[in-house]
Write the structure tokens for this entry.
Amino acid sequence: MHKRVLIVEDEASIRDMVAFALRKADMDVAQAADARAAEIAIADAPPDLILLDWMLPGMTGLELARRLRHDPRTAEVPIIMLTARGEEMDRVNGLEAGVDDYVVKPFSTRELIARIKAVLRRAQGDDGTGSVELGGLRIDGPAHRVFAGGTQIEIGPTEYRLLHFFMTHAERVYTRAQLLDHVWGGSVYVEERTVDVHIRRLRKTLEPFGLENLVQTVRGSGYRFSTSA
Amino acid sequence: MHKRVLIVEDEASIRDMVAFALRKADMDVAQAADARAAEIAIADAPPDLILLDWMLPGMTGLELARRLRHDPRTAEVPIIMLTARGEEMDRVNGLEAGVDDYVVKPFSTRELIARIKAVLRRAQGDDGTGSVELGGLRIDGPAHRVFAGGTQIEIGPTEYRLLHFFMTHAERVYTRAQLLDHVWGGSVYVEERTVDVHIRRLRKTLEPFGLENLVQTVRGSGYRFSTSA
DNA sequence: CGCAACATGACAGAGGCATGACAGCGCCGT
DNA sequence: ACGGCGCTGTCATGCCTCTGTCATGTTGCG
């Protein structure tokens, strides 16, 4: 019931303040001061969400984020990064993806909690089974099947992962780089234009059901899954 | 333009130090040594933000915060509390009272000002997600969408960036050179007159909604986004 | 009135994206 | 082992939107 959140942050005062705020918001909190402690904490009890400081002793938060993404046990756990500067954020946002959201320091606890809840809500419907339903589409996670209305859709593996990611991250634009990170996995080298092709293939399979406009192009930015035109 | 900040703090040395730092950061400062003086100062000229010390003679800062929240005239004014180390349990109470943020003593003026700016920014509708709402317009940052009233607006990439910059920097005149720097990015060579054209295009997309007068010309200086005609 | 600053419309070029084709690859049954 | 077969990544092409610039009309100001 209560969501479990892991805070990875070296500065004790921030860590404590955030921990108090989260407990107040009915969340279970685990703390870690560095990457090593974080991995131990994760092995101990896997969290539902990870708060990751940008600057950590030894290993940067970004490196840790990558390692977590590569580990199948933590690949699906959403990550929110705490960054120091607003300027770095844009660059980070474009280049280094694999993170679900950013919060820029200094932040108020109120704002942080709002963002955490937003991310957890987004992952909702993915109640462990990996099933989602949205905009006339339904994904049956365990059965690895997709339905439009009542009828089943034939869909390839990559399009399946792409659609699943979109449905669990709707109403939000993702760059091609971000999609490559989330859908293909960070450790492959693939042309960004390849994303276009799979978007095309996904649209094509949705077309017979009139659902191809769920996948929308945002010129100059990327793609977006949205239930509103 | 200049934000008005009220400091409620009984220790004169801290009060003066903070006041000095705030004035240097282009803010108007009012001071009060206790709760009674604070209420007089607020009645005199309502501030945009209140800095509240935890320990006050007569009435604790927390009580005062509750009273301010209860009064409709001050309910919307953000509050930042100054707490001493080791009062963490009290933070929880502060959250209940609707305090917006905390700064733990001892603090650097730099950090304090950063927090103040963050809270003020949020009070203006910027919650850190890149979304803004102002003058009948709303930008959904993550979804990369613009709404006028309730309906969505079709807008090009450059006009989007231009509008976003304006909405996050309203009520202030920017020269064409400044707009080129902020919206186009510093490393491009573009005629200054090009700005005029994009201003024109932005106005044109706002025209159907009667919002074109949000973008105002300041002859001899540049352009300004303002909610007041 | 005359000048400078700005508004407006038109236009050609650039660049982003959609689309269809194709070759490599792994998988499977024969 | 061999030959289909489905899937994937890349490329070439064409379309279409956006963009910067110019020419011309309009406005404000001394």
Remarks:
- The longest strand of chain B covers residues 3-8.
